[in-house]
C-alpha cells in the first residue's frame, strides 16, 4: 500500500530509486505567495550531496534539482510543486554480483519478502539516496518556517564513543562532520578512519534543534508534535532510536528534577525538549536520533541467497563509513516538514 | 485540526476527557467475521485500570466497556465498532484550586496556548485516562493478530535505577509492576515507595515485544513499521524516547557487530529489533520506551498563572508515583494497533 | 476497509445500525471556542425525525442526542466531540421473516456479498437511520458556518411528476414535505398517498442552496468543491444523481448561453451553481439530487434467498412512501459538512 | 491545502500546468508484480491527445510519457511510479492580452480570489491539460483491473440535442467523437461545426460503463462506490452533473418500477447502475456525466478585470468547440482509478 507521502496539509510525496532514472517529489499544500527558486533548494541539497569529503561515499552526483510546476513569476501558486533530480553516477554493475544475496543489515531480505522480488541496484528504493527528495522538499518547508522566525539546525553529537562537549553553531559548517565542537572533530575523524581502514563502519548520534517555534503546535492525541517527530526521524534510513529533550535519561530521574519550572520569563530548564502533552511550549525543540553504523561493510559476513542457501558476502562499492554524518541535513529536512505541517494545522485550532 | 485518529486501514478514533461523561472509540475497518465480545475488551481494560495496587492512583473506575455497534450475532460485521466507557469516579473539585495555574510538566500551559482556554478538570483530554479508549481498541486488534499467531507482551524493564536482569514472561502478571524479573520486584517497589514518601515520583522504561510477526510488514518510505511504532509509542502520555532493537546502543557499535548475520535458520542476532529498511524481517519486534516520572507531585514547584504571574503549586489529588507501570498495557495496545494496520496494509503489496 | 469518516479537517466518523444499541459520531477538528449545546443539535435532529406526519415512517424515536465530550463550560475545547443517540423503537422481529432474503433495491445482497453475512435487522448499517449521526454532526458544522454568514437551506423541488413553480423559503417549514411552493403541496401529497395506497413508493428531487459562501472554497484538482459535494450527496441513501447549477441542462446549451457574464455587481446568471474550476465564486451554491423511490414496498417482487434460490418478497414494516422528503435535512447536513471542511481548508491557501 | 491526490490505496498525486515545464503523476500503492511499460500508458494518452481532428483543439503535443521509477525488469516493484510528460507546444503569448481579465465560465476569477494571484497562461493548473496525468495513471489502473476481467468503456451519448440511439462498442474508436452509434456521428459533427462557425461551443453527455466488476466494491457509509464515482467524475473539468443507472429518471419512477428484481440468473434490470447501498452488485456499472460547452468562445462576453472594472472579452487561441468529446478517455481513467482503489480496499473486508 502507498506509504511514500508525508504530512497532512503540507504534503510531500516522493519517488525514485538509487539507480533509477530520477528521484523526485511532489509538494502539495504549500501556501501561495512564497517566493521560491531552485537555488533555495540547491543549497540544502548540496549539504546532503555525496562525494564531498573522504569520510563519505565517493559517488559523484550534481544533485541538480529542477522545479517542474507550482511556481509562477518566482512565487508559489498554491498548486503542487513538482521536483526532479536526475541520477547521473549510478554504477549498477557493482551490484550484479550480489543480486541473489541478501546484505545483512540492509532491506534486501525484507523487500524481497514483501514484494516477491526487488530492485537490487544500490538498494533500489531502500537506499538513502531516496532522501534527496526529502531534502529538496524540506528546503521549501524551511522557507515557509523562516518567514515565521523558525530556524532548524542539526549536528553530529556523537560518533562512536566520541561525544561533543560544547555546541558552537558557527562551527557546524566548518567541517565535513557537521560537528559543532571543533575540539571533537579530530577524534571523530580518527574513529571513522580507523573503522574504514578495518573495512568496518561506525554509528553516530545526531541532534536537531528548532528555535523560534511558537507554543501551540501539535494535534493530540495521536498527531502530537513529538509523535510526528519520532515517526519522521525513525523513517530516516539507519535510525534506531529517537528521543526528545531529556529522552532516555528520564528513566532515572525524579519528578521534581524532571519537571521544568515555569516563570514569567519562561521555562527554567528544558527537559521537555520544548514539547508538553504533545504540543510545543515555545521553548527550543530538541530531538536526538541514534544512527546505526553503515551496514555495507567490506568485512565478510554470513548470509543466505534468495533460495535460502548459506552464503558469504562482503559489500564493495562506494559507501559511507559513518552514515550518521549524512543524516544531518536529512534530519533537518524531516524536522522542517513536521513543523511546517503542524504550523499550518495549528492555524485551524481556534475560531478566528 | 483533527488528530484523534490512528491507523490507515484499521482506523481508531477516540474521544473523551478525564472528567467528562464518557470516553470511547470508533474502530472503523475491522474485517468482518471476527468473533468478539465485551469480555475480550474488558480483560485488557482491567489490566490498565487504576486503583489496583498501592503503587498506582486510587481513583476507582470499573472501566466497564460497552460495544454499541458493529457486532451481530457475536461477530464483527465489517461496519464501525462503537465503544464507550462511562466515567464514574471523577472528582473535579480537586482541580478547582488549580484552574488558573499551569502544572509544570503537564499539558496545562500548552493546551491553554493552543486552544485559548482549557478543561482543567484532571487534565481534560491530555489526561492518561484517554488511553482507556486505546486499550479497548487495541484489544480488538490483538484478537485479529492472535488469529495470525501474533502475540504481544509488554513489561517494565527498569524503574528509576533498578533494571531487570532476566525476562520470565510468566512472572509479568504475578506482580503489580508488570515486572518479568521476580528478583527486581522488591527493589523497584522500594524505589517507588521512597519517591512517594518524599512526595516525588520516578521514571521507568517499558519494553514491548511482538512474536510471530511475519516478514513484510511496513510501507516505505514514510510509513515504515519502525516509524509507525515510534510515532505510536511517542503519542503515549509521558513518553520521551523510543528505540528499536539495539536502539541508542548502535551509536557506539561497529557495523560488523551491529549487522545481524543471516542463516538458513534465521538471524543470528536481533540488533535490528525485527525491522530492516522499515519492514518486519520475521524476527521478534522489540521496542523500548522511556517514560518520565509523573509530573503531578506534592512537592511545591514554581509556575505561573494564566495571567502570567508567578505562583507556587503542589499537586494534590490521586496520582501514580510511577506512571511508567501503567504504560505497559497502553504500549501493548499501541503495538497491536500498529501491527494490525500494517498486517492489513501488507495484504495489498503484491498482485494476488 | 474503513469508510465511515468524512472530511479532512472537520472530520466526522459515524457508527451505529438501525436496530443496534445506539448511533453516534465523533466530530474531530471542530475549532475551539464555539458555543455549543445539545439543543443546537436537537433542532436539526427533530427535523429529520421519523413519525412526524402520515407521509413518513411511523417508527417512533425521540432521537435525543447526548454530547459526551469536547465541550467545557458551553464551548468547544478543540478536542473530539462525541455524540450519541440511543435507539428506542427498533422492532427487529419485523425482519426475521426476511433474514434469508434479499430485498430488491436494498443493500441486502451487496452487504452479504461483501462481508459474508449481514445484520438483517432494518438494514443494519445500510439503513437511512444511520443519517441521524450525520445530521447531528452537520448541526455543529452549521453553527461554525453561521458565524461566517453562511446559511444552508434545502427543500423538495419535485415529487414524482409534480414540480415546484416558485421558491418561498418561509413556506418550507410550514408543511411536512419541506416544499417551498405552497401551491405544490397538495399535488405532491396526493402523489405520495396514491403510491402508498397502491403499496408502492415514489421518487423525488431535492435542492440545496448555500448562501453567503465566500469565493475561494475548494481544493483542485481532486478535492474541488463540486467534487466534494457530489461525493457527499451521492453518499446519502437512495440518491442516484447529483447536479450543480444548470446541471444536466448544460448538455443542450451553447457556451454563449451557459457562461455567466461577470459585472462589477457580480455574476449576471448562475448556471455555474456558484462553482467555477472547482472553487466557489461567491454566488449561491446550488445542488440538486435525485432520490429514488423507497425500495421497501408491499408489492410482491421477485428475488432470491441467500442460497441463490428464487423467492418472492413483499416488504412490510414501517416505511416512508417517499424517502426523498426525509433526505432534505440530511442533504443540508452533508452540504454543511462539505462547506465547513472547505472553509477551514481554504484558510491555508495563502501565506498569512 | 493539498487536493491533488486521489485514492486511498492506489494513490495518485498529479502536478503540472498547461504552460509549465511538465505534467506528471506519482502513483503510489500499485501492487508489485504488474507487467508495465510506457507503451501501456501511451495508448490511452494518444486517445486523449489534442490535435487529432478538426473537432478539437489544434495544439500539437506528442504527450510522450516517461516512467521515472517504480519499474524493474518490466514489472512494478511496489514502490511509487513517477510519470512525466513534458509540454512542447505551449503558446503563452496568446494569453498575455487577457492576463488581467477573468474569462467567464473559467476558473480565472476563483483562482485569483483563492490564491491572490494566478498563472494566467492557458488556465495554469485549472486547464484540462492537467488530465494528461490522470489518463497516464488511469492506464496503470486499467492494467490491474484487466487482470481481474474488469473492462471500462466510455463514449459520447449526446452532443447538444443529438442523442445516440444504439450502442455498438466497435464503433467508438472509428470516429473522432467516441460515438458508439454510427448513425449519430454525422448529426453530432454538424452540431459541433455549426457552433464553431458561430464562434460558439456546445455541451455533451458522456457515458462510462464498467463490465466484469465483482459484487462487493465500495466502503459505506461515506466511501460508497457511487459516492467515489460521483466525486471523481465531478472533479473532471467542465462536468456539472453525474448520475448512476437510472439517474435523474428515478424522480418520476415508482418503487415497483425502479427496483431491479433479482433472479438466480442475475438482476432483471439495471436501474441501480450496478450499485446498491454504495456497493457494486456484480452488474454493469453505468455512469453518465454532463459536460458543459467550452467556456472559451470567440463571441464577445461581459467580464471584469482584476481591479473590478467592467471589460469585454473574446477568447482566441486554440480551443475545443465541444470539450465533452475529449472527456471520454478522462472519464474512463477516473472510473479506472475509482475501481482499482475499491478493488484493493475490498480485499480487506473480511478475515482471510
Polypeptide structure, described:
Chain A is of the alpha+beta class. The first copy, chain A, has a single domain, classed as Chorismate synthase, AroC fold. Chain A has seven helices and 18 strands. The longest helix of chain A is centred in the C-terminal third of the chain and has 24 residues, at 323-346. The mean pLDDT of chain A is 95. The interface between C and D is large, with 114 and 115 residues. Chains A, B, C, D: This is Chorismate synthase.
Summary keywords:
Chorismate synthase, AroC fold; homotetramer; alpha+beta; 18 strands; globular; five-stranded antiparallel beta sheet; 7 helices
Could you give a short description of this structure?
Chains A, B, C, D: One of its GO terms (biological process) is chorismate biosynthetic process. The structure is a homotetramer of 352-residue chains. In chain A, 26% of the residues lie in helices and 21% in strands.
* Count of β-strands of chain A: 18
Helix content of chain A: 25-40%
Distance between the termini of chain A: 38 Å
Radius of gyration of chain A: 21 Å
- CATH class wording of chain A: Alpha Beta
Write the CATH architecture name of chain A. 4-Layer Sandwich
- Silhouette of chain A: globular
Count of individual helical segments of chain A: 7
Strand composition percent of chain A: 15-25%
Domain count of chain A, please report it: 1
Order of helices and strands of chain A: EEEHEEEEHHEEHEHEHEEEEEEEH
The CATH H-level homologous superfamily of chain A = Chorismate synthase AroC
Classify the oligomer: homotetramer
Main sheet strand line-up of chain A: 1-2-3-7-4
- Spans of at least 5 consecutive residues with low confidence of chain A: none
CATH topology of chain A: Chorismate synthase, AroC fold
- Biggest protein-protein interface? C-D, 114 and 115 residues
Structural class based on helices, strands and sheet pairing of chain A: alpha+beta
Mean pLDDT of chain A: 95
Q: Main sheet of chain A, how many strands, which sense, barrel?
A: 5 strands, antiparallel
Family (chains A, B, C, D): Belongs to the chorismate synthase family.
Keywords (chains A, B, C, D): Amino-acid biosynthesis, Aromatic amino acid biosynthesis, FAD, Flavoprotein, FMN, Lyase, NADP
Protein name (chains A, B, C, D): Chorismate synthase
Organism (chains A, B, C, D): Candidatus Manganitrophus noduliformans
